[in-house]
Amino acid sequence: MNLNLLRIFVQVAETSNITEASKALFISQPAVSKAIKNLEASLGIQLFIRDKHKGLLLTEAGREILVLARQMKAIENSIYQIAGRENRLLGGKIKVGSFPAATTNLLSKAIAVFRTNYPLVKIELLEGVSDQIKQWVEDRTVELGIVASPLDSLEFEKLQSDYMVAIVPADHPLAKEPIIDLNCYRDEVIFCKGGHEIAMNSILREYRIELGEGLTVQSAETLIRMVRNGLGIGLISNFTLSSVSHDLVVKEIRPGVTRDIGIIAHSFGEISPAAKQLVTVLLQTGQESGEGFE
C-alpha cells in the first residue's frame, strides 16, 4: 500500500475539494486527481462521488477506508516518534479535540508546559462540544479528546470533577440565599447548554423536575449578558464559568448536578509516544487546577 496515496486521500476526504487539498499538500491539482484515480484503481473501488454542488462525497466504502487510513497515518507518525524519542528528539504531530472551556482552563496550560519539553511536536487543535469530540475520536479525526461525562465505550482518564451552579446579579433577591432550589424557580432558569445537556437532564429526571419554557443558550458569554439584563437565573457548569470573567454572584443549586471532565482515546496503550507525554502533562495540569473546582 502506497502511504503517500493514502495521505493524499485523507486530505481530499477532509476537505472534499481537490483544489483545497492541493494547497494543503503543496502539490498540483492534477497530481492530487491522479493520486486519487491511482488509489481507486489499485483498490478496484470508487472512493468518491463527484457532486456538482457539494463537491467530492465519500462513498460508504470510502468512509470506512478513511478511518483505516487515519489509523495508518497515526501508526506512521508513531514510528517516527519512537525513532525521535530514541534520538532524544521527540517530534511529530498530535491532533486533539477539546471544548472551549477545557481549552482555556486546562489545555492551554498543558501545551505551554509540553512545548518547553518537546518543542518539535506540533499540536493541532479542533474545538467543539463533547458529542462532536467523541465522534472525532471514534473516527480517528483526532488522537485525543477532552470531554465531559457521560462517556461511551472510549477509554477515559479523569482530569477533574465539575458541577453546575446558578448565577445572579449582586442586587438580585436570591444573591443572599445560600442555595437556589431549581424546583422553586424552574420558570426563571436560563440554561447554558455547552455540552451539559445529558448530565443535566439525567438529574432533572431523577428528581422529577421539569424546567419551564425558559431561555437556552450555547455560550457562557451570552448567559452572563442575559443574567445581567435581568432575564432570569443563569444555570451553568462551574468549570465553564471559570473560563470567562464576570461580576455575578455564584450560588449552589439543589439538586446538585455533577460530572467528570477527562481525556478520551481509543486506547491509551496504542496512542503515539508524543500523545502519551501530553496525557501525562494534562493529568498533572488537571490535578493542579482541580483544587479550584472541587
TrEMBL record:
Matches recorded under InterPro entries: LysR_HTH_N, LysR_subst-bd, WH-like_DNA-bd_sf, WH_DNA-bd_sf
Superkingdom per UniProt: Bacteria
Sorted UniProt keywords: DNA-binding, Transcription, Transcription regulation
Family: Belongs to the LysR transcriptional regulatory family.
Record-annotated HTH lysR-type domain positions: 1-59
Taxonomic source organism: Paenibacillus barengoltzii J12
Protein name as catalogued: DNA-binding transcriptional regulator, LysR family
GO molecular function: DNA binding
